[in-house]
């Protein structure tokens, strides 16, 4: 069984970064295996680099405590709007309905860039 917590439980009071003591407690001691959502209550939003740094910090904490990798990520449909300066593409169902394979391919390339 995997426990999942909201990212707010791991952030500093101003939501600008992760707190290592909270990561150690929730991931290391409590064995949380999944993190939900991203910080979106601070202006400016995290950049792609901020998010990558946070993901590495979470995964390094899991390794430090011999835990499996923590499930946490953003997808192009529900997550790109949490990160500053990312590309938000049409919903995949809408791309499929267009029957435009080139547009679908390009949307995949753009989303994978972020």
Please summarize what this structure is.
Helices cover 41% and strands 5% of the residues. It is mainly alpha-helical. Strand 1, helix 1 and strand 2 form a beta-alpha-beta unit.
Structural summary, described in words:
The model has no long low-confidence stretch (mean pLDDT 87). The relative contact order is 0.15. α1 (20-29) crosses α2. The chain has 4 helices and 2 strands. The protein has helices spanning 20-29, 48-64, 92-98, 101-113; strands spanning 4-6, 34-36. It has a two-stranded parallel sheet with strand order 1-2. It is mainly α and 114 residues long.
> Which sheet architecture does the biggest sheet show?
2 strands, parallel
User: How many runs of DSSP E, i.e. beta strands?
Assistant: 2
Strand order of the largest sheet: 1-2
Compute the number of helices. 4
Distance between the termini: 31 Å
Q: Mean pLDDT, rounded to whole units? A: 87
Alpha carbon gyration radius = 16 Å
Weakly predicted, low-confidence segments: none
Helix content, binned percent: 40-55%
Order of helices and strands: EHEHHH
Helix- and strand-based class? mainly alpha
Instruction: State the shape.
Output: elongated
